Amino acid sequence: MKNSTNPAQYTFAIPTGDGQFLASYSSQGLSALRFPAEANGSVALSTMGGIPDQILNCHAETTAALSMALVGRAPPKLPRFDLSSGTQFQREVWRTLLRIERGRTWSYAQVAQAIGRPAALRAVGRACGANPIPVLVPCHRVLASNHALGGFSAGLEWKRLLLKREGSWPS
DNA sequence: TAAGTGCGTCGTT
DNA sequence: AACGACGCACTTA
What we know:
Blueprint: E1 10-16, E2 19-26, E3 29-34, H1 53-70, H2 88-97, E4 106-107, H3 108-114, H4 121-129, E5 142-143, H5 156-165
Helix pairs in contact: 3-4
The protein binds a DNA duplex through helix 3, helix 4 and strand 5.
């Protein structure tokens, strides 16, 4: 079941060497991170005027963490996350993903076991696909048991790239 | 071996 | 009621 979601109140662009990411924030923290879109037009910020320091601080942390993560290093500090958009099951999965260290990978089955539902491995895959904060919540570190890539909502090229930069993918 | 098929399982739509 | 970002057992070639 879903929880009431605090609507994302602010969305900022984060330019990186890989393109412009979009980060959305609620008062609770970073609520969504989106990969660079094909046609990445300028993002109109409807929030001209006072942006709470709390949001700005969070965004600064996100920017720093993202730049680290994109070059395959472990961010020393992660921003506060707002994962309230997920169901309890999804949040449990996402929380588990945060335990996967840089340079390591788990299988979908391992994640399922970690949350005490070894049979729900397929549902875990779905939950990974619903991860609102890719890269920082490292769903890309989950592979199929046979070490195949599995899937990735933003495209397998991204998954492969992220893993390569962490040294978790050959070639 | 490699590649293909079938099915259990379970959260989500 | 149907569908997966799965995994495993079990064919075939």
